[in-house]
Amino acid sequence: GAGTFARVYRAVHRETGQVVAVKVLRKRYSSKAPDYEPFVREGELGMTLRHPNIVPIYEVYSRDDTHFLVMEFVEGRNMREFVKIRKKLEPVEATRLMMDVAGGLRYAHERGLTHRDLRASNVLVSSRGRAKVVDFGLAAGDEEGKQDAGSESNPRTIDYAALERATGMRRDDARSDVYFMGCIFYYMLTGEPPLPEIKDRTRRLAKSRFTQVTPIQEFDPTLSSAVALVVNRAMDLDPEKRYQTPAAMLDDLA
Which one, 13, 128, 138, 172, has least CB within 10 Å? Predict the structure, then answer.
C-alpha cells in the first residue's frame, strides 16, 4: 500500500517465516530529522503497545537515510475500502467493529496516549472480521508534550486542527479521538463520511464543516435510537457533552 509519507510492503521474515508488513518512509522524508524522527517515534511507541485491537510493531530500523518499521501483517482491508465495497454495514456488525476500535483506544488512552490521526483508513478489518487500529505516529509526540505534529499545515492532522478551531479544545484531548470515533461509526452505518471531503485547506479548516453534518437518522430512519444516540453523543460539538473517554463510549456500545 502507499500513503503520503510511507509505502507498506508484504514481506516474509527470513528466520521465522512469519509474514509481516514493512512500512518504509519515502525517500523525500528520510534525510531530515524533523521529517523522519516522528516516524521513528511511531515505531518505538508501537513496540510498547500490545492489544488485540492495535496493530503491533515488532522492529524499528533507522540508519542514515533508511527508515522502516516491521509490523503485523493484517490480511484484509482498511475500513475505508471495506465500507466502500459493502456500501454500508448493518448496525450489529458496525457496532461490533466499533467496540474493537474503542477497546484498542481505551487501552492507549489509559496509558496517556491519544491517536490524533484517527480515520477510517487507519482502522484495518481483518479477514476474521476484527478491527485493529494502526498508525499511532502522532501520539508519539504526546510523551514530550509536542504540538508540532498537530500543525494546521500537516495534512495528517488537519481535521483535528479544524475541530480544535471549532470547539476550542486541544487536538491531543482524548475527546478529539472520541469525535473521530463517532465519524468512523457514522461512516460504517451510512456509507457516507459525515464531514465533507474537501481538499482546499482553508475550507477544510472552516468551523462550518462541523455544523453541516447530516443527522444520521436522516440517512436511515429505521436506525435504532440507541445506536443513533451513541453516534450523536460521540460527535457532539460540545466537548463536555461528548463521551469523555473511549471507555465510556465502549460501555454504551456493549
Answer: 128
| Amino acid sitting at position 107 | Y
**Residue 100: CB atoms within 10 Å:** 22
Q: What is the pLDDT of residues 144-170, one digit of tens each?
A: 444 444 444 455 567 777 787 777 777
| Cell numbers for 188 | 460504517
Distances (CA, A) of 91 to 187, 189, 253: 11, 6, 11
- Please say if 220 is a catalytic residue: no
Catalytic residue among 64, 100, 117, 135: 117
- The residues that bridge with 76 in the sheet, in sequence order, are 126
Higher per-residue confidence, 236 vs 165: 236
What's the chain's length in residues? 254
Q: Which helix (H) or strand (E) holds 47?
A: none
Q: 143 lies in a domain?
A: yes
Contacts 24+ apart (CB under 8 A), 123-128: 123/78, 123/79, 123/97, 123/184, 124/55, 124/74, 124/76, 124/77, 124/78, 124/79, 125/76, 125/77, 125/78, 125/79, 125/82, 125/97, 126/74, 126/75, 126/76, 127/75, 127/76
Model pTM score: 0.88
**103 and 171 share one domain:** yes
Indicate the pLDDT class of residue 198, thresholds 50, 70 and 90: confident
Question: How many domains is the chain built from?
Answer: 2
